[in-house]
Amino acid sequence: MSKKKSLVSELQLKVGAMVLALLTIALAHFAYSAWTQANKIAADTVAQRATSLSLDIKNRLAEFTFQVAHYSDHRILAELPLNLLYTQYALKEMRDLVYTSPLVKSVMISDGSPYIVEGYPLYTLHWATPSIIEHANAVTNANARELMVRKLLISNQELGVTDTNGGTLFIAVPLRQTLPSLIDPFRYTSVLFFELDTSQLAIELADYESLRIFSDQQLWFDEGNAFEEGLNATYPIYERGDEGLSLSLSLSHQHSAYTREILYAIIRSALLALGVLIILFWYLAYVSRKVTSPMKQLEQYCMSLTSGNYQQNNANLEYEELKTLQKTLNELVSTVNTQVTQLKQEKVRAEQSELAKAQFLATMSHEIRTPMNAILGVFQLLRQHNQDQEDSSLVEQGYTSSQTLLALVNDILDFSKMEAGKLTLEVLAVDILQLCQEVIQEYQHLARDKQVELKLVTDLKPQLSVRLADPLRLKQILRNLLSNAIKFTEQGQVTLSVQGDKTQLVIAVSDSGIGMTATQVASLFKHFQQADSSTTRKYGGSGLGLAIVKQLVELMQGEVTVSSVAGEGSQFTVSLPLVSTKPTAQHLSNQAQPKVPDLRGVNVLLAEDNLINQQIFAAMMKKTHANLTLANNGKLAMDCFFEAQPDLFFVDIQMPVMDGIEVCQQVKNTDYRKPLIAITANVLPEDVSRYLSLGFDDLVAKPIDMQALFDTITRVMSKQIQAQSSTTKSDTSTLDNK
């Protein structure tokens, strides 16, 4: 039996590794301290060397000053300002001075005039600066002469040297002419200026390789720039306070001051620390491999689980903790496999149920709408005839009941689409006030029958009435709210209030009806549910209206709220983010559009297998004065089509012998380009899109609304006229080009 291993025991061993790590840190600290101490020694050495070297530079400058002092009695140089015949001789002397002395970069003579008398190299002829002239005048002035050999620091800016900061060091030697007079034996004529190359001076004095020059320029005059490479020290030699100039020495020494013992101690410490680190890293790598390899196996196993591969893990793991984890994962996988199998089965059943539900709704919608077409069509036709008051009331009640039944069917379909997330909104420019007036007009007769006052109240400005919205869904919201308010109001009034600004529209429907308690309000927007069980028995209804209102409002990114007091009434408030837009020509026009199109001389062909639907359609089209031809199925309709070539062709989708789809395909294979309109009770969005994609120009839903039928005819006829006009213009343009 193998000995059990634990991660805990492995981790305990790491304490020893931590001790080794602390030892390594201590050794590193010792090495760092030795390094710091060595740096300090080197820095002190450099500072001492800088002090010593600066003194050497001062002595060398003093020595050079003594060497050039005798040039004050040089006859050619001294008499040059007074006798220009000595120019060539003086220039030769000055050139020899530059060539023979490494410290001399240039030589020039100034007598205090605005011009340099002579100089070499030629750039010195431009150095008649105020400092040069001032010093030369101090020497030649008989009242206050400066007779000493001086060192002058002149800024580069004054000399016109723009590529370097600081200044230039000069040795100024007074030049005098010997006179044959005991009272005044000398006459001071000018000053001889030596420009010194101080960097060359430092090179002469440097005696070991690690000493580096501060600058490779001609001057060593610093204006505060720090020298940051290696160990360094800066020591001032000469300063000129009025110009802020200083002649400074900067040295750099690269760790040459380490003692051998310190170096060996650092090396030993580094080697020991390196050995400890190597051992520690090796051990950690060993432990890491022992632990991470099985952990990686489990990680890969978990990744395979996330991709849906629910297989058991049978790897041979070494540590007990990992074995426990493996066992737990395998148990979870077994549970997940069981649940996944159950979920797949439930998904299949749900999909089948959803498909059956969709098929049932489509079938029931078609089957209900087909007889509803006859019922609603008859009531629409009866409303067009003059009747006595009692008959007219019965017709209106029948029409209203038919509309209510149709609305219930539409509500069920809409609710099903909203649950499936398939309901989409259409955005159009809608006149809100006009739309509210239309809905109010629809429910006026229902309110009058219950002796309830129905009115519209608004302070919405006319220019804010046109909004971007879905008119159909907005009407659906208003219809549900108004019908609900009228239904639960026995007496009093129902008020539709409209308010808003440029970006927000607030619609409120208030009534003086039975009201609700807080408990009833809480469950009000649940589908297939009303305030209490007695409500359905007393007032009727499916309980879908308010649920559809809530979902439509939320689909429009809005909010619906309700406030109610039992016995006093209720108020439903809908807030929608509908942006106002400019009125279109249609909104601005005050001329009423004709409701019944004039189709005199227009041949209309209807393919419809239901005799009652034929009669309803013929009665509706009677007022248009169209020449109507009826066909009982698709095959007969095609025979009439080839014989008469109708101006309008209405086709029912579901017919015996030949259905509407096949009729459409055969018509589209001909040269027929006049309107082809589908008539169907299949009004689901996917059905409508399919019919339009097959080639139908428009669609009329069953049950047929008379005004919707007339609007469809007007619309397709207008498109036909526009298409013919465009074709005529194109043909005329072609003839003109020929």
What does this structure look like?
This protein is of the alpha/beta class and 738 residues long. It is built from 20 helices and 19 strands. The strands form 5 sheets. The chain has a 5-stranded antiparallel beta sheet with strand order 2-1-5-4-3, with helices on both faces. A 5-stranded mixed beta sheet has the order 9-11-12-14-13, with helices on one face. A hairpin with a 4-residue loop joins strand 11 and strand 12. Helix 1 packs across helix 7 and helix 8 packs antiparallel against helix 9. The chain is elongated, with a radius of gyration of 55 Å. The relative contact order is 0.06. About 6% of the residues have low confidence.
Short summary:
The protein has 738 residues and is of the alpha/beta class. It has helices spanning 7-68, 75-79, 87-100, 130-140, 156-159, 198-205, 260-306, 320-383, 389-420, 432-449, 471-487, 518-522, 533-539, 545-555, 585-588, 611-621, 634-644, 660-668, 685-694, 706-737; strands at 104-110, 118-120, 150-155, 167-178, 186-196, 231-240, 245-253, 428-431, 452-458, 466-469, 492-500, 505-511, 559-565, 569-576, 603-607, 627-631, 648-652, 676-680, 698-701.
